Amino acid sequence: MQLFDSHTHLNDPQLWNQVDYYLQQAQKYNVQELAVVGSDAQLNQRALTLAKQHSQIHAVIGWHPEAAAFFNLSQQKQLVEDIQSPKVVAIGEIGLDYYWEQNPEPRVQQKAFIEQLEIAQQYHLPVNIHTREAWADTYQILRRHPVAAGMVMHSFNGSLAWLDKFLALGCYVSFSGVVSFKNATAVQLAAQNVPLQRLLLETDAPYLAPEPQRGKLNQPAYTYFVAQAVANYRVLPLNIVAQHTFKNACEVYQIHDKN
Ligand SMILES: [Zn+2]
After folding, report:
1. Where are the annotated coiled coils located (predicted)?
2. Binding site membership: which residues?
3. For position 214, what pLDDT does the model report?
4. Least enclosed by CB within 10 Å: which of 51, 52, 132, 150?
């Protein structure tokens, strides 16, 4: 069995100093491939550095809505330069987050989001999308600026109605440890209804540690527990969930399956 953590932050200050330890742990839990995701200049550079040092790490770089105000022309040029690296497999995490009041205003977030969708389209890269309290705007923007290489909705927590709409756009849908939380019934329902061909798993470590590790610092190894939760809710063997989600992640990130 092999698992793919399609969205993780080993570049985060909480994990960054013990990357070798976390990679060993990942190995123990059959997490063979990882996409380390950046969100601003520093975290993007760290994601790239890690990807260059470790064959199983792939970099996803881009500007998170929280950092959208800093995504200026020189940062755009830097991003276009950085995505030329063969270790960059997607642009992300990008999107909209209307939850936090301190975030840039929607107009600023939307501009950075659209600019990065256009870069992804131009350079034939998929995108990894963060959306919070912004379903309608995220959907409208993706509808007008689709990315042919692939779109991944990360840590999906929307309703079945939104799930259907994003699936109809061709999106992949990724589930984090939230799916294992007892009260997250809407997320569990979504996880049951994503076609196996569009399903991905992630930890979003160091955040959102799944049951039975909830409350602890999350790490890529715990993709195993996310897979287990999804397998339980879908009433499928764990290895089937692992097999499909691994294949899907390799497909969208265009990584050759090392089987
Ligand atoms: Zn994340």
Report:
1. none
2. 7, 9, 93, 130, 154, 204
3. 94
4. 52
What is the distance in A from the centroid of ligand 1 to the CA of 1? 25
Question: How many angstroms separate the alpha carbon of residue 220 from the centre of ligand 1?
Answer: 12
User: Hey, what are 77's tokens?
Assistant: 């040029």
Residues 6+ apart with CB under 8 A from 125: 83, 88, 89, 90, 91, 119, 147, 149
Taking only the tens place, the pLDDT of each residue in 197-222 is 999 999 999 999 999 999 999 999 99
Q: 44: closest CA among 57, 71, 62? A: 62
Show the domains of the chain with their CATH numbers.
3-252 (3.20.20.140)
User: How many Å apart are CA 236 and CA 230, to the nearest integer?
Assistant: 8
Spell out the SS3 assignment of 73-127. HHHHHHHHHHCCCCCEEEEEEEEEECCCCCCCCHHHHHHHHHHHHHHHHHCCCCE
DSSP letter string, 172-221 = EEEE-GGGGSTT-HHHHHHHHHS-GGGEEE---TTS-PPTTSTTSPP-GG
Q: How many residues would you count in the chain?
A: 259
Contacts of 59 by beta carbon, 8 Å cutoff, 6+ apart: 35, 36, 38, 44, 47, 48, 50, 51, 85, 87, 88, 89
- Residues contributing to the annotated binding site for a divalent metal cation: 7, 9, 93, 130, 154, 204
**What distance in angstroms lies between residue 201's CA and the mean position of ligand 1's atoms?**
12
Express the helix, strand and coil content of the chain in percent, nearest 5 each: 50, 15, 35
Collapse the DSSP code of 138 into the 3-class scheme (helix H, G, I; strand E, B; otherwise coil) and give the result.
Answer: helix
Q: Is 236 left (phi over 0), alpha (psi -120 to 50) or beta?
A: beta
Instruction: Summarize pLDDT for 110-166 with one digit per residue, the tens.
Output: 999 999 999 999 999 999 999 999 999 999 999 999 999 999 999 999 999 999 999
